[in-house]
Design brief:
single chain, 408 residues, alpha+beta, Butyryl-Coa Dehydrogenase, subunit A, domain 1, Butyryl-CoA Dehydrogenase, subunit A, domain 2, Butyryl-CoA Dehydrogenase, subunit A, domain 3, four-stranded mixed sheet, four-stranded antiparallel sheet, 12 helices, 50% helix, 14% strand, binds flavin-adenine dinucleotide
């Protein structure tokens, strides 16, 4: 593995960093306090091509590789988690899953406007009664001729109130021998009759991000909006998590870096007992731990980006990266508050926001406990990756940047 970044990757990193640091950082505190999304953020991320970074140009994307997506997420979350959450919901859960499992017609109809940022997507799996145990999904769709009739509730959905499209997994067969085999995935237009939605308020973190609920009452969904085959919903959802977790892992790496940089800055400026606190070894230990965790988290997500670029499944590696980076980011943010003393405990500094934001990532897209179960499954050989009917395509620079659709 060669982890030196190409000039295109460096350019992407710089462009995303400029956007986040210059346009969002100066106002994020205000919107986090108000618990309101920044009104122009999604449009701007679309204009800059950030929302469609890892998709081929022929699908309206930026033609960049999967590692570039991780680099972008790190830069976004180094400023605020809600920016990376956009990439997790829109680009990871919705767009990349469509790219992997969708038909050519679905890619033309849905992925192109998503990649261009003309439409916003989200991924809806969690329900009021189930999160970790997705096989227990109760929302359901029944086929009636050329359409399905879909009903149910989805909860804790990032971008629920902003999205035009949702990639949603529901039950289509209540008699399947294994509950997971009775699930199917659809791409649903959220302006359809029978859809209602709202926002959730009072969250601990990601306060400038829109998190909400979706309700479906006898919503007619054309058969051509079914992604994959009937009964493939669980596998498709697990693919969605492979992509979403990668964005979460790379984003959390940005929190570690931001905590480290804030701590170094403050420790050099603040004096106690006649010298900068950076010269006290107990403070140095905290900074050293953050530096070490940043390095590990970065290498772990680079590995996933590299595997994705090769077209190799990375479920285990993604799980390790997600578990490590999210927990390390929570720890780094907590220690950054400690380094800042009382000032760190107020929102005068950013570090308290990092801590509130970091906690959520230990819960969503598979909690830390679920990641441990996944990793134990691989280690004990109780779990192995079986080939999927549709794999995420390997990155190929020439075809990604070409406007011509390759014949398969
Ligand atoms: C800010 C935010 C954004 C989100 N965005 C989305 C989104 O865009 N789309 C979406 O579909 N969902 C989203 N979610 C929901 C998230 O994915 C779920 O909260 C998560 O999967 C956990 O489910 P749960 O909250 O129902 O917890 P539960 O599944 O009820 O788990 C509760 C606790 O029990 C533990 N636990 C569960 N099972 C086991 C077990 N077998 N062994 C040991 N411990 C276990 C869990 O780790 C957790 O600590 C979001 C959540 C948040 C907070």
């Amino acid at each position: 593995m060669d982890f030196s970044l190409s000039s295109q990757q460096l350019m992407t990193q710089k462009m995303v960093s400029n956007f986040a640091q210059k346009e969002v950082a100066p106002i994020i505190k205000e919107f986090d306090r108000k618990q309101e999304p920044i009104p122009w953020v999604l449009k701007r991320m679309g204009e800059l091509g950030i929302l469609g970074l890892p998709f081929p140009v022929r699908y309206g994307g930026g033609g960049m590789d999967y590692l570039s997506l991780g680099l972008a997420c790190e830069e976004l979350e180094a400023v605020d988690t809600h920016l990376r959450v956009v990439m997790s919901g829109h680009t990871g859960l919705c767009g990349m899953t469509l790219f992997q499992w969708g038909s050519e017609a679905q890619k033309q109809t849905f992925l192109v406007p998503l990649a261009k940022g003309e439409k916003i997507g989200c991924g809806a799996f969690t329900e009021p009664g189930t999160g970790s145990d997705l096989a227990a999904i109760r929302s359901a769709a029944r086929r009636e001729g050329d359409h399905y009739v879909l009903s149910g509730e989805k909860m804790w959905i990032s971008l629920a109130s902003k999205a035009d499209l949702v990639l949603i997994t529901v039950r289509t067969d209540s008699t399947a021998q294994k509950a997971a085999e009775g699930l199917s995935t659809f791409i649903v237009d959220l302006s359809s009759k029978g859809v209602t939605r709202g926002e959730l308020h009072g969250k601990l973190g990601v306060r400038a991000g829109a998190t909400g609920w979706l309700s479906f009452q006898d919503v007619e969904v054309p058969v051509e909006n079914r992604v994959g085959q009937e009964g493939e919903g669980f596998k498709i959802t697990m693919s969605a998590f492979d992509h979403g977790r990668y964005t979460v892992a790379s984003g959390a790496t940005g929190i570690i870096r931001a905590s480290l940089e804030a701590s170094v800055r403050y420790a050099k400026a603040r004096q106690t007992f006649g010298k900068p606190i950076a010269e006290h070894q107990l403070i140095q230990e905290k900074i050293a731990q953050m530096a070490q965790d940043y390095e590990i988290a970065r290498l772990l997500y680079y590995q996933v980006g590299w595997l994705k670029n090769q077209g190799k499944r990375a479920t285990r590696e993604t799980s390790v990266a997600k578990k490590f980076a999210t927990e390390a980011s929570f720890h780094a943010a907590a220690e950054a508050i400690q380094v800042h003393g009382a000032y760190g405990y107020s929102d005068e500094f950013d570090v308290e926001r990092y801590l509130r934001n970091a906690k959520g990532a230990m819960i969503y897209e598979g909690s830390s406990e679920i990641q441990l179960l996944i990793q134990a499954g691989y280690a004990l050989a109780e779990r192995a990756d079986k080939p999927l009917r549709c794999e995420l395509p390997a990155y190929d620079e020439a075809s990604w940047q070409s406007l011509i659709i390759a014949k398969t």
